[in-house]
């Protein structure tokens, strides 16, 4: 058993050294580009694997505007961070150490998370993360995009919003850094939307900081009313109660036709005439053709004299009979569905009851 075990170790060791001997076999994962603005900070989630599974980092350097000097075969540039393992205390130097604006939050095994606070607009460009473990070396570029002014958040919304149907809007920006908190706030026509605003189901904020991407988001879920159509929704980025940036979108709320019925008069003597009008007050999308139908006591009225106009339908009852008393309403449909008016009661008086 013991002999077999040793053989296995030897074979594994051989395979490992064959596979890991090339300097190309470091893997370093972090977001491709990190975004921030002048005065904020940047936290770079970062993970690495050295070519030798048991290797420990001996040195870590963070360069700015680096170049490779072919003559000396060394990287040169502004050194923002330089930590070397010491004999005295081999671990501590590479754990949680701060030099100037840079803090290394990782470790010597697999974590190269870094933070730069504050960050400057002129830090934009490539950082170079130089790592050394024994004879293995690696240079990893990390791209920073630091603007002069805080950038605008994005707002995502579904392609169609309908009245009374729950909808979720997402506001976010590719930024998150512990130590520089940002808050995303929502406004409807300049008044703040909070979780206690009627029609609001929830507002949830989240921070994502992974080796794939870094962002802060707020999701607003609510049920818009048809009267919210055309109103503005704003998402504001705040830091220490100060507004950094914002973005505004307009709500396009689709709704069924809103109809207004008028009956004149509502009380009438037998044989007199009554005129009813049905007006399309509002509709989104607009009605393609005005096809208003009329109902009496819930049943469709047929063979009536109708005058249909652009946004209006007129129903004239020339000589009313007792049978014509009842409740009237009108209806019209757009692509969203049918909209109904209120019901209006018609009373017919008889001379000789
Ligand atoms: C990093 O620091 C070590 C001493 O701790 C020094 O020998 C080395 O030259 C420094 N590297 C750079 C690139 O400044
Ligand atoms: C790396 O270290 C940071 C800071 O301690 C920690 O927040 C993060 O979760 C670590 N990442 C991984 C992949 O372990
Ligand atoms: C970058 O800007 C800061 C001030 O924002 C300044 O102190 C520093 O010298 C600048 N660095 C370079 C390399 O221009
Ligand atoms: C930084 O990001 C913004 C927004 O994505 C982009 O418009 C700009 O060109 C970028 N700047 C640099 C220097 O990469
Ligand atoms: C934010 O990051 C995502 C993924 O990392 C990217 O697809 C998107 O273009 C970025 N947005 C901006 C405005 O830079
Ligand atoms: C129709 O619009 C008028 C004025 O624009 C308004 O007074 C009325 O309440 C509306 N009626 C309905 C049913 O929406
Ligand atoms: C109502 O009209 C009918 C015919 O249209 C007529 O026969 C009847 O006399 C009229 N009644 C009254 C009260 O005018």
Walk me through what this model shows.
With 353 residues, the protein is mainly beta. The protein folds into three domains: 24-147, Immunoglobulins (Immunoglobulin-like), CATH 2.60.40; 154-251, Immunoglobulins (Immunoglobulin-like), CATH 2.60.40.10; 255-349, Immunoglobulin-like. It has one helix and 30 strands. The chain has one helix at 2-20, and strands at 27-29, 33-37, 42-44, 47-49, 59-69, 74-84, 97-99, 102-104, 114-116, 125-133, 136-147, 154-156, 161-162, 167-173, 183-188, 191-193, 200-209, 214-222, 232-239, 242-250, 253-264, 267-269, 274-284, 293-296, 299-300, 306-308, 312-317, 326-334, 337-340, 344-349. Strands 22, 24, 25, 28, 29 and 30 form a six-stranded mixed β-sheet that branches. The longest helix is centred in the N-terminal third of the chain and has 19 residues, at 2-20. The model is unreliable at 5-21 (pLDDT under 50). One 2-acetamido-2-deoxy-beta-D-glucopyranose is lined by residues 61, 79, 82, 84.
